[in-house]
Amino acid sequence: IDFWGTPQKEAVQWLNLNAPESASVHIVMAQTTAATYLRPDLLKNVNKKDIENSDYTVLLNRQSFFGLYNIPEMIGEKEREGKIAFKRTVDQVPLVWVFSK
Q: Where are the beta strands (DSSP E) in the chain?
């Protein structure tokens, strides 16, 4: 799908425009790279809370990690609850999601 995590930049840019000041953000994969794009107030709270307790979670569509975090169940739950704040797709394939709490 995407090897280098480039869709995370779009997800983080969305957060920069939409997340409230000092919101907590959890970046599941390639945290260091994605965090370089975060606003300073979001950067100070990146990955300080786990997935369940963060205001926002950034998730790449990297299926090799899905088993570690019960990702398919989480995606389904977030879709049912209307908590997918941002999703980047190409040809109807999701590349990255931002979930809200």
A: 25-27, 56-60, 84-90, 93-100
Q: Is the pLDDT of residue 53 over 80?
A: yes
Q: Is the separation of the CB atoms in 29 and 68 below 8 Å? A: no
d(C-alpha 70, C-alpha 79), whole Å: 15
Residue of higher predicted confidence among 3 and 83: 83
Q: What is the mean pLDDT of residues 87-91?
A: 90
**86-94 — which CB contacts under 8 Å span 24+ positions?**
86/10, 86/11, 86/14, 86/15, 86/18, 88/7, 88/10, 88/11, 93/1, 93/61, 94/61
pTM: 0.86
Please name the residue that has the structure tokens 């980047």: 88
Considering the chain, what percentage of its residues have pLDDT values greater than 70?
93
- The HSE-up count of residue 60 (CA atoms within 13 Å, CB side) is 20
